[in-house]
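A reminder from the course coordinator: this example appears on the midterm review sheet, so study it carefully.

Given structure:
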């Protein structure tokens, strides 16, 4: 254990090799203003304590399937009622503190969303153009194949006729 410097009764300091007096050290630290995170944690703890003493917070969160009542359209709370029910809870406190921090981010996110939408539209146009080009190339290839097939059949028919004529001529000569 490292030694700790402790003030003595005479005002001089002496070196102690014993365990430090944690209460003294905690009391002698300089108190600074709490950070936003510490403030948030403190408010969350206070709100959680308030919520814990409410009767609804002590009830069991489990509801059996037999006792569960499905909400009808008339039973659903409005958005304003939901906001009021969250206010004062740790979730509500956290939302009240986080939402203002996120507001400056909204325009950047909207711009990113618009850029993404434009990119997606461009990608769709490119894909559509690529599919159209592919279809045109396939149609051209099929047309060329059909032309070549017709030419081969014509050439084959002509050769077949020529061979038959030559065979007939040979038969006549013999």
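Designed residues:
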């Amino acid at each position: 254990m490292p030694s700790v410097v402790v003030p003595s009764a005479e005002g001089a300091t002496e070196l102690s090799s014993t365990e430090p007096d944690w209460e003294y050290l905690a009391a002698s630290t300089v108190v600074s203003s709490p950070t936003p995170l510490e403030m948030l944690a403190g408010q969350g703890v206070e709100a959680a304590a308030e919520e814990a003493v409410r009767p609804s917070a002590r009830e069991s969160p489990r509801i059996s399937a037999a006792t569960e009542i499905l909400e009808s359209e008339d039973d659903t709370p409005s958005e304003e009622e939901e906001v009021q029910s969250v206010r004062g809870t740790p979730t509500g406190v956290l939302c009240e503190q986080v939402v203002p921090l996120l507001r400056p981010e909204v325009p950047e996110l909207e711009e990113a969303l618009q850029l993404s939408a434009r990119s997606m539209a461009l990608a769709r146009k490119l894909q559509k153009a690529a599919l159209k080009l592919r279809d045109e190339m396939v149609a051209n290839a099929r047309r060329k194949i059909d032309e070549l097939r017709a030419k081969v059949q014509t050439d084959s028919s002509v050769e077949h006729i020529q061979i038959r004529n030559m065979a007939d001529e040979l038969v006549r000569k013999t």
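The first helix runs from residue 22 to 28. The beta strands are 4-7, 13-16.
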